[in-house]
Each structure stands twice: as structure tokens, then as C-alpha cells.
Amino acid sequence: MTATEPGTHISLPELIRLQADARALKLPAARPVRSRQAGLQRSPRRGRGMAFAEVRQYQPGDDIRSIDWRVTARRQSPHTKLYEEERERPVLLLCDLGPSLFFASTGAYKQVRCAQLAGILAWLALWSGDQVGGIVFNGRELSVQRPARRKKSVLRLLDTLAQQQRVSPDDRGLQQAVEKGCDLDTALREARRVAHTGSRIFVISDFLNITGDTSRLLGALARHNTVSALRVIDPLELKLPDSGRFAIASEDGPVWFDSSNPRFKQAYAEKVRQHTEALEECFRTAGVQPANVMTSDQPALILQTLLGPRGHIG
């Protein structure tokens, strides 16, 4: 697949049109559950409180600590405050568009799938009344947009996704990404600085270049936030074809390999196994929720299986 073929880049208008996919996932929100008194069950929403809903006349069993004394004095009868769970919270999208994502053997490039996932999630969060922010990094630059609840902010994030996609793999690649501080670990450090307690964080990457610090950085984010790791994978990364000679792009030009070579296939399979185990341990130790997205998959269909009831991204 070359840079001139469909699926190698997604433009800003195409990212804006993802509103249609997001609307298909978004169903009417459930009515908020109101509470008369504090309960003993732990809330799945970390760092969120209870928002005031209304005042009504006191009923037996109401918590006396919730009595509104001003209203009680004015109306000359006990009245209590009702609260409902706060639904608004910041959603932060970390989107990796680095050198290893300029690749696909089928479907669309991994960078395109990452941008599509981020775009759909951004629209969903906006329509849920949540603040939306993002960190986009591609090996050359890293852009930070703090969460805000405005359509203009989502459009600015989508524009960043469109602009930072790589159009050719002609730079020094992964080493340059590390030298410039535009890699996954740097983005995770930045996310810890930007994210508010109780945020919903999605890390969208192929996670091919995790380090010894990645699990610790993910764990620090997950300690006070809900973090999901969306791993974008190409089928060729998991298993080589049965036979044939193939070429892949590199900074020094095409690299050929023969998948019919038993020793090569065995070594490749072992490397895949080691990385898979390391990644599973990374996610498990960090306490994040992982999910896989193939380059051959349609992101909207995958998100439909991952999102909560009624299309809610909580």
C-alpha cells in the first residue's frame, strides 16, 4: 500500500463526517439516578461527586444532613435536597501517529485507524456533554489540547489529527521520535500533567515501542482516572503469510523477507509472542482496559462492542 492509495491518510472533512458514525452509536441517555442519602456501594466513576437536582418536602428516611434549612425556615416545613450523579467529566484522547503506524497490509494504515477512533470518541464525548481534549504525537511533534466542552475544540483536535498524519516515511523514524521527545512515554507524562482527577482517558496506539517506563506511566494515570488502551494492529504483525517474498518500507529503503523460511518464521513468531506477553503484563500491571482494533476493522463497529450501554463512553 503506497501513500497515494486510499486508506493512507484521512483528511479533516472526512474526520468531520465521522459525526454520522458517532450518531449511530449514540442513543438517548438514561435518566439520571437520584439519591436521597449516601449509599455504601462504591461508584464506578472515579473522582466525581453529586450534583444538586432539586428541593422537595422531607420524607421519613431522608438523611437529615440533606435538609435545606433556608427553605425549611421560609416554608415552615422540613425540606430536603436531592442530588444526582454528575455525568460530565473530561475525556482525554492520546493519539499515536508515529513512524510505526505508517503501515498496513490490509484495510487502512494504522495511523488512519488511530485518527478515526479518536475522531469518533471526540464526537461522542462532546454530545455526552463532556469536555474533550487530546494529545497527538507523531515522532516529529507533540500537540496538547486541554479538555473543553466546545465544538470548536473538537474541530481543532480533528485538524491536528489531519495535519500530523505522516505522508511519507522518509525521516529517521523511531530513534528521531525518542530524541525529539514525541514518543508514547512523553505523551503519557504530558497526560498526567493535563488530566483532571476522574477523567476518561483513551490511549490509541500500536504499542510497538513500549519501554520499561510505559507500565509505570500508564499506572500513574489509571490511579485516579479510567484508562483504556486501544491497540491498533495489522494482521501481518501477528502472523506471516505461509509463503512468498515480501517487502516492507524502512528508512533505508525496502526490506525483503522470505516467509517460507522456517527459521525466519520461527524467530518472527517468537518475537511476536514475547512482545504480546510483555504488553499484556504492561496493561495488567498498570490496571488499564485493553482492546484490539485491526487495520481491516471498521472503527465504529469495534467501538460499538466496547462502549457502554446507550453509547456512553464511561
Structural key phrases:
11 strands, 36% helix, Rossmann fold, alpha/beta
Mean pLDDT: 82
SS content category: alpha/beta
- What portion of the residues fall into strands of 2 or more residues? 15-25%
The N- to C-terminal Cα distance equals 36 Å
The CATH class designation of the largest domain is Alpha Beta
CATH topology of the largest domain: Rossmann fold
Q: What is the helical fraction, as a range of percent?
A: 25-40%
Main sheet attributes: strand count, strand direction, barrel closure: 6 strands, mixed
Gyration radius, rounded: 23 Å
Low-confidence stretches: 1-5, 27-48
CATH superfamily of the largest domain: von Willebrand factor, type A domain
Number of domains: 2
CATH architecture of the largest domain: 3-Layer(aba) Sandwich
| Order of strands, widest sheet | 6-5-4-7-8-11
Order of helices and strands: HHEEHEEHEEHHHEHEHEEHEH
**Morphology call:** elongated
Count of individual beta strands: 11
SS element count, helices: 11
Structure write-up:
- The chain is α/β, with parallel strands linked by helices and 314 residues long.
- The chain has two domains: 12-26 and 88-234 and 287-311, Rossmann fold, CATH 3.40.50; 34-85, no CATH class.
- The chain is 36% helix and 20% strand.
- The chain is built from eleven helices and eleven strands.
- The protein has helices at residues 12-16, 19-25, 69-75, 110-127, 151-164, 174-179, 184-194, 214-222, 235-238, 262-286, 299-306; strands spanning 34-35, 50-57, 79-85, 91-96, 132-137, 142-148, 200-205, 226-233, 245-248, 255-258, 289-294.
- The strands form three sheets. Strands 6-5-4-7-8-11 form a six-stranded mixed β-sheet, sandwiched between helices. A three-stranded antiparallel β-sheet has the order 1-3-2. A two-stranded antiparallel sheet has the order 9-10.
- The longest helix is centred in the C-terminal third of the chain and has 25 residues, at 262-286.
- Mean pLDDT is 82; it is low at 1-5 and 27-48.
